[in-house]
Amino acid sequence: MFLRCAACGSRNLTERDVDETLTVGEGSAAERIRAAVPIRHCSDCGEEWADRKTEAARRDAVERHLAERRAREKRERKDAAGAGAGPFHRPSRS
Ligand SMILES: [Zn+2]
To answer: Does residue 19 sit within a domain?
Structure first.
């Protein structure tokens, strides 16, 4: 892969991880998550930009978050269904 800096044309590129805030979902269901993603960094002029790897890392982070949320919701539904000792029984929550 021959990459050049879009700003100065240098090939002296490195990669570094940055913390990003990503938005998962839309509207009132939207959640914000933090994820470390790799971005390209030009050692000569300091320009930084997202490439395909950055995009993939963002997608992974979002998918991981959604999978965790689905697993959590499934667990909570199971807990609620398993708590059926009567209509007034509720798991105690402070
Ligand atoms: Zn550059």
So the answer is: yes
| CA 11 – ligand 1 centroid, Å | 8
| Tokens coding 59 | 């997608």
Q: What is the reported pTM?
A: 0.72
Q: How far is CA 36 from CA 3, 30, 57, 67, 88, in A?
A: 22, 19, 8, 18, 44
Instruction: Say if CB 60 and CB 38 are below 8 A apart.
Output: no
The span from the CA of 74 to the CA of 41, in Å, is: 41
| pLDDT tens, position by position, 23-64 | 998 899 899 999 999 999 999 999 999 999 999 999 999 999
Range of the domain at 72: 13-78
Please give the distance, rounded to the nearest whole angstrom, from the Cα atom of residue 10 to the centre of ligand 1: 5
Specify if 6 maps to a domain: no
pLDDT at residue 2, as a whole number = 65
Asked if 12 contacts 3 with a C-beta cutoff of 8 angstroms, the reply is: no
